[in-house]
Amino acid sequence: MSSMQSHRRSIPAPERFQDLRGAEALVVSVLRLWAEPLREPERRHPHWQDGMTEAGLSNDAAVAFDTLMRIVLAATVRPLDLHRPPCPGLGTDETLLLDMLRLAQQGQHGEAGLLMNDLLPLAGVRMAMAPLCVLATALSRAGLQLPDPAEDARTPKRAAAGCMERTRERPLPTADRGATLLH
């Protein structure tokens, strides 16, 4: 694992799916639908790309998303914390993806790469940054801007939630290199 330190936001991430806004809900829904065939390959599943198409995203966005997730799955240093589609909670890696995309949309690619270091060794981060940036740009072009949690902290509801910041511990690497999905 790389020696880069993990960089986390000082504002807590949403903890429930229902707290997500449009672009955030789209990304998490697509992520969950993308992962479902890995859990139950013998079942039929909805096409995860359909939500992206409905949101006005190009095929390039779907290819970038799929490429990003395949790199993450192949190179991750730990099991992924992704929840099933009906789950009301959010997995830590779902919020991590939202943070990385938000930073990439804001042009903070180095910060996004540092967050990605929680999932991937440095070589994987280098490979995954291009599709992450393509996806972030496609979301922006479609008018799907991920909200900045620092802006939300200025509202009284979010400011109060800041006092109850949850901590995230960094899991240790496992032998399966991430092929196991949690939840």
* Fraction of helical residues: 40-55%
Based on helices, strands and strand pairing, what is the structural class?
mainly alpha
Pick out the low-confidence regions. 1-11, 154-179
Please write the string of helix (H) and strand (E) elements: HHHEHHHHHE
Number of strands: 2
Radius of gyration: 16 Å
Q: Give the overall shape, derived from the CA principal axes.
A: globular
Strand order within the widest sheet? 1-2
* Mean pLDDT across all amino acids: 81
Beta-strand level of the residues, as a percent range? under 5%
Count of DSSP-assigned helices: 8
Secondary structure topology:
Elements: H1 22-39, H2 49-54, H3 59-75, E1 80-81, H4 92-105, H5 109-116, H6 122-141, H7 149-152, H8 156-161, E2 181-182
Parallel strand pairs: 1-2
Helix pairs in contact: 1-4, 3-6, 4-5, 4-6, 5-6
Describe the structure.
- With 183 residues, this protein is mainly α.
- It has one domain.
- Helix content is 51%, strand content 2%.
- The protein has eight helices and two strands.
- The chain has helices at 22-39, 49-54, 59-75, 92-105, 109-116, 122-141, 149-152, 156-161, and strands at 80-81, 181-182.
- The protein has a two-stranded parallel sheet with strand order 1-2.
- Helix 1 packs across helix 4, helix 4 (92-105) packs across helix 6 and helix 5 crosses helix 6 (122-141).
- The radius of gyration is 16 Å and the shape is globular.
- The two termini are 24 Å apart.
- 34% of the residues are buried.
- The model is unreliable at 1-11 and 154-179 (pLDDT under 50).
- Residues 147-183 are annotated as: Disordered.
